Amino acid sequence: MSKYVDRPRFGCAMAGALGVLRAIPRAIPIIHASTGCGYNVYNGTNAGSAYLGGGYCGATSTPSSNIIEKEIVFGGEDRLEEQIKTTLEIMDGDLYVVVTGCMVEMVGDDAESVVKEFAGSENPPVIAVPTPSFKGNSYYGYDLLLEGLVKQYIVPKEKKEVRTVNILGILPGQDVLWKGNLKEIKRVLQLIGIKANTLFGEGETLQDIQHSAVASLNIIVSDVYGSLTAEAYKEIHEIPFIRTALPVGYLQTEKFLREIGGYFKIAESVIEKALESERDIYFDYVERIADIYNDVDFQRYSIVVSDANYAPSVSEFLSDELGWLPQLTVITDFLTEQQKQKLERRFEAYASGLKPTVRFDTDTSSVRRYLKDTWELDSNQRYYDSLGPSVILGSVFEKDLSDEFKYPLITISFPVTNRVIMNRAYVGFNGGITLIEDIFTTLVAGR
Amino acid sequence: MSIFNESTEVEIRERRLHSTLSYHGDANDLNEKSKQRALSCKGRYYGQCSDCAEGCAETITYHVIDAAVVSHAPVGCSVNVSNHHILGRAVSNARGLETHKVHMISSNIQEKDTVYGAAEKLRSAIYEADKRFKPKTIFIQASCASGIIGEDLESVANETEDELGYPIIPVYCEGFKSRIWSTGFDAAFHGILRRLIKKPKRKQEDLVNIFNFEGSDLFIPFLKKLNLRVNYLIPLASVEQLETITEAACTAHICETLATYIAAVLEEKYGVPEVKVPAPFGIDWTDEWLREIARFTNRESLAEKVIQEEHAKVLPELDDLRKKLKGKKVYVLSGDSFAHNIANIVKDLGLELAGMNTLHHDLHSDSPLQANTLEALIKSSGNIKNVTVCNKQPYQVLKILQKIKPDLLIVRHMNLTSLGTKLGIPTLFEGDANYSIGYDGVVKMGRRFDEALRTKKLVENIAAHTKLPYSDWWLKQEDPFYFEGGIQK
């Protein structure tokens, strides 16, 4: 039996799908669900993803069938059909996507057959991607939505472009730095001559998604997410995929570029040249903190509470680039045993030789317990060594923990309500510099 | 017929208060049609998303001190917890209370549970909430999913209540049950009335119940002028505080939509009189509100003295503000009947009330003696043109605003504010529903309007670069109410 969750750090499948639609220019979502679902998702994700805003057609503007008891009893397909028809009249978009709430799935509405009535007309395409929320959370919804686009919208391309790739695994909204991260991934790949389509990054349009089948490889920058989409690309459009970790900072990004470069058999000299130039820039910045780091002794114990994408990479970054002592990492997603094992391996080969205690738990108040488990408690020993100084990198839910133990908190993962995030990234070379900036800004803030 | 009955659920607003979600006309006409119950709760051919009863119930249950909440729902319904953290933290700190922590667990209803039932999961979540948070009461919030599978919340509540020895309170706030999200307030209050509130042990003659939306602490200093104490309800009230609300001298609230149900029941069942004049917004309503409270607490002459002093205090600045704001048109967009409260301030500032939209409208209240704020507003401000009712629906509001072209917009619901900005209209957010009470509230609103008008730079910049998501056909459409009606009649 699956268990309860103490303060979930994600939305439902529909929330993940709406996050993707929020990110795609001129895509119009049509929610088939109760009246409150759309706004609840917006309200949670706007604040939780560091003030993302409603965008072109999100928030209270999102078209929604707003079904009520009558449709629960008699079915809501007629109401959905009416809503699609009127949405096509009133909302100005290039692609209309029906997503569904749990209640209409429970009563058996078939959104996919309803949209068939709109196929082949003069209208822009209307597709349906059922997103039953009792089957999964935002991570699942992201994957369902993209899988739906791959199956129903993306144009087949026989001829592939060499060294053109699509980027998967970064979730708009759920990853609060998604847009900056996509931008940096695109930039670093460009350094070694690879053209990356991030699907909904800066300047990208619906056409980029529509024609994404020209890629010769899909790169999933996530150990566990994006499978449905990648498999669909592979099966329908014959695009293979590889998975990498989310590369945070110099060391991980170098590894990432070598891995992708190796796949495309890019000349060693090209990669080396790119790395040399980036290395100069990167460490010219990083060297700046050497003074303050040593003068004030900024070595810290680290406590990382984050999702399956960020937690391993950030923990490794803190250990192997900042020279911190990795104490505890809690990964807060729903994961299978197999996925957990895979993620565990990410903690086993730190250059520092250190390894944090790794726990998997979706419950917010469990973090405190794990923290106490990893360190001997103060029972009035003569020379008690407290766990400190420490820093927490987590979500805003860690505020209570931060207050209680007086450990500064840097919010990096959903929900992040105490920051406004626009185009910054923690991924790549520039991301590493920004993360250092944010961490040390927090530490010097009181000066 | 009594207002309160022991049934598990309170009747939804469409049936209980004959609420409507669509109307356009003027204030007089709406008031007359309401009296004749001549409006029904129709749907729309085209809809945009809005709120639900579960969300409204959360604004109460998540904020009871020493309580925990089990949301019997798929995890996604709880995506908004972080906003409750922000609110709870900010207001408890501002009021000098211990920082409020939202204690909630989602039962995480999954596919299998929708087939085989989820009572076992609910029970385990309740016991876990007990273990983790050591609460004095636990609310069980229903959801669309738990409602459809027909989960027997009563049995689980009774059983766990026996075991844990404190109240376990089911709140029937399934999102699909009512189109009027405020039904969620009633659902939470009904649960509290059924299982938490006790008979008075004694009377506290100087204690006034104030039902509010977790706003800032302005009632304590205000009622101190009458030597009265304030019992802020329900957000940030403790369980003990709730048990004893029946001891208060009277009950007032800042919005009829929020609290007329519980206020009427407190009067009917426990003899706590309800203040039956509109909330203290605008000078005239504040006068009457103070007099009514004074009547229940035997402070009539003191009230007259306070009224006189307060008038004298605010008049000079009001004169000044009226000059500054003269000729400006303001449009009010808020819930029923809070919109009436805001609108009643408009005349005091010499502004023109260009129109008003309420997000729903109750054709009557729970008791015929309760205030009719719409009628009171007509009395104080005259008939009002451009009065509409719609549940957010920015596509419609946009057309109304483009037609009326107000100089200022004031809104109580998040995200509708940015609609004003996108259209280039300086917009005030009335998020803190206590902020504009009393005499000072009129002055403060005037200052805010003045400030909003002094520079419109952000508004202009955003408006100049915003693309609206509507088709040319809709932008040229003459009738904003084109899509009213629809299949759900």
Summarize the structure.
The complex is a heterodimer of chains A (447) and B (489). Chain A has 447 residues and is an alpha/beta fold.
Plain-language structure description:
The complex is a heterodimer of chains A (447) and B (489). With 447 residues, chain A is α/β, with parallel strands linked by helices. Chain A has three domains: 13-137 and 145-151, Nitrogenase molybdenum iron protein domain (Rossmann fold, 3-Layer(aba) Sandwich); 161-280, Nitrogenase molybdenum iron protein domain (Rossmann fold); 288-416, Rossmann fold, CATH 3.40.50.1980. Chain A has 18 helices and 13 strands. Chain A has helices at 13-23, 35-48, 69-74, 77-90, 102-106, 111-116, 138-152, 178-191, 206-210, 227-237, 249-263, 268-286, 289-296, 310-320, 337-345, 366-373, 399-405, 428-444; strands spanning 5-6, 27-32, 95-100, 126-129, 161-168, 195-197, 215-220, 241-243, 301-306, 325-331, 357-360, 390-394, 409-411. In chain A, the strands form three sheets. A five-stranded parallel beta sheet of chain A has the order 11-10-9-12-13, sandwiched between helices. A four-stranded parallel beta sheet of chain A has the order 6-5-7-8. In chain A, helix 1 (13-23) packs across helix 2 (35-48) and helix 11 (249-263) runs antiparallel to helix 12. The longest helix of chain A is centred in the middle third of the chain and has 19 residues, at 268-286. The mean pLDDT of chain A is 96. Chain B is α/β, with parallel strands linked by helices. Chain B has three domains: 52-195, Rossmann fold (3-Layer(aba) Sandwich), CATH 3.40.50; 204-297, 3-Layer(aba) Sandwich (Rossmann fold); 300-476, Rossmann fold (3-Layer(aba) Sandwich), CATH 3.40.50. Chain B has helices at residues 13-16, 27-35, 53-61, 81-94, 111-116, 119-133, 144-148, 153-164, 183-195, 219-224, 239-243, 256-270, 283-297, 300-325, 338-346, 373-381, 394-404, 416-422, 438-454, 457-465, 472-476, and strands at 23-25, 67-71, 104-106, 137-141, 168-171, 204-211, 229-233, 248-253, 329-334, 352-358, 387-389, 408-411, 427-429. In chain B, the strands form three sheets. In chain B, strands 1-11-10-9-12-13 form a six-stranded mixed beta sheet, sandwiched between helices. Chains A and B meet through strand 1, helix 1, helix 2, helix 3 and helix 4 of A and helix 3, helix 4, strand 3, helix 5 and helix 6 of B. Strand 1 of chain A pairs antiparallel with strand 3 of chain B.
